[in-house]
Amino acid sequence: MRNINEKFVVERVKKHLSSRWSVVSEKDLHEKGCDLVLKDELNKHKARRFLIECKGKSYSKSSRAVNETIWLYALGQLITRMKVIANHAYKYGLGLPKVSADKALRRIPWQAARHLCLYIFSVDDLGKVTEYSPKDFKKLQNGKR
C-alpha cells in the first residue's frame, strides 16, 4: 500500500497539470502559502495563475474522521490566501486523496465552486489524478455522472 502523503499529492497534481501549467512556486510542508502556484503556459500574454492547496491521507487511529474532514482545512487555507476572485484570472484548487475529494465534491456547493473558480484534484491510491471543474461539481450534485 502506497503512503498518500502531502508530498505525493503535490507531485501527482503537478505532473497532471504539467502539459499546460508551469510551476511558479512550490512550498515545503511547513512553509506558509499555497503548496503550488502555477502559471498558464498557453496564455502567455495574460497573468493567469492556479493556486493549489494539497493535503495527504491520514493513517492515524482516527484516520476515517480526519480523512473525511481534511478538505475543510485545505479549503480554509485556500480561501484565506485568495487575493483575486475574477473569472479567468486566477483558478484555485484542492489536491486531495480520493476519500477526502469525494466528500468535498458532495459538500462544497457547486455555486460556490463556480464563483471561486475552484477545482478539485482527486488522487487515488495508485497515484491517478481525476480533475473536477466547477461544472463537474454541478453534475455530481445533480446526480448526473
Descriptive overview:
By secondary structure, the chain is α/β, with parallel strands linked by helices. The protein has a single domain (6-141), classed as Trna Endonuclease, Chain: A, domain 1. 38% of the residues lie in helices and 24% in strands. It has five helices and six strands, in the order αβββαβααββα. It has a six-stranded mixed β-sheet with strand order 1-2-3-4-5-6, with helices on both faces. Helix 2 crosses helix 3 (98-107) and helix 4 (110-116) packs antiparallel against helix 5 (134-141). It is globular and about 50 Å long.
SSE arrangement, N to C: HEEEHEHHEEH
Shape: globular
Number of helices: 5
Under the CATH scheme, the architecture is 3-Layer(aba) Sandwich
Overall number of strands = 6
**Overall residue-averaged pLDDT value:** 87
Strand content: 15-25%
What is the gyration radius calculated from CA atoms? 14 Å
CATH class: Alpha Beta
CATH topology: Trna Endonuclease, Chain: A, domain 1
Tally of individual domains: 1
Question: What percent of residues adopt helix (DSSP H or I)?
Answer: 25-40%
Distance between the termini: 29 Å
- What order do the strands of the largest sheet run in, or round the barrel if closed? 1-2-3-4-5-6
SSE blueprint:
Blueprint: H1 6-17, E1 21-26, E2 36-40, E3 49-54, H2 63-80, E4 90-97, H3 98-107, H4 110-116, E5 118-123, E6 129-132, H5 134-141
Parallel strand pairs: 3-4, 4-5
Antiparallel strand pairs: 1-2, 2-3, 5-6
Helix pairs in contact: 2-3, 4-5
